[in-house]
Design a protein that fits this description.
Elements: H1 11-31, E1 34-39, E2 46-50, E3 59-63, E4 72-76, E5 83-87, E6 91-98, E7 107-111, E8 120-123, E9 132-135, E10 142-149, E11 152-159, E12 168-173
Antiparallel strand pairs: 1-4, 1-12, 2-3, 4-5, 5-6, 6-7, 8-9, 10-11
């Protein structure tokens, strides 16, 4: 017996076996929730984005436009209470990561590996819709921050405080 999808006798059997799998995968993809991330500091005007530069690893804040680089998935991590952040532009294999370089303040998109810099705790300090984002690597000491340096702004892990650049909104998107 030869099993190929081109065999007209086996095509209905193949489709009967494959359809439930395709439907399950499709429903999981359809149920995946995407978010835009913005800070209190920038308001509704700017969202966390990925630069479309071929490597899709550079993080910036740009005008909110519902582009693929501004679509973030919050996936449950293997460690309870933590999540991994994936981006529509960089794909399923890259996660938002804190670079473990001694200072642990730089951010990058890196291959997902359940490393401490990729395990994010997303919590509301005052039970509102404003969230603080911390990693297992930096603990409670540092939060994801949009640091303002005059006319320039950069994303970094900075000492946690009551700063508008550390209060994030995760807005549900399409």
């Amino acid at each position: 017996v030869r099993f190929t999808t081109g065999d007209p006798m086996l095509r209905p059997l193949f489709l009967c076996l494959l359809m439930p799998v395709l439907m399950l995968l499709g429903s999981q993809a359809a149920n995946a929730q995407h978010y835009t991330l913005r800070t209190e500091f920038t308001g509704n005007g700017k969202c966390l984005d990925i630069v479309n530069d071929g490597s899709n690893k550079q993080l910036i804040m740009t005008a909110c436009a519902n582009g693929n680089g501004q679509r973030w998935r919050v996936d449950e991590a293997s460690k309870p209470g933590f999540s991994q952040l994936r981006n529509g532009m960089s794909g399923r294999d890259l996660c938002l990561d804190v670079v473990s370089d001694g200072r642990s303040d730089k951010l990058a998109m890196a291959r997902c590996a359940n490393s401490p810099g990729q395990l994010w705790r997303i919590e509301s300090p005052d039970k509102s819709n404003k969230m603080k984002l911390r990693t297992l690597l930096t603990g409670n000491a540092k939060c994801l921050d949009l640091v303002s340096e005059g006319a320039n702004q950069r994303l970094a892990m900075a000492p946690c405080g009551n700063y508008s650049g550390q209060l994030w909104h995760l807005d549900e998107g399409p």
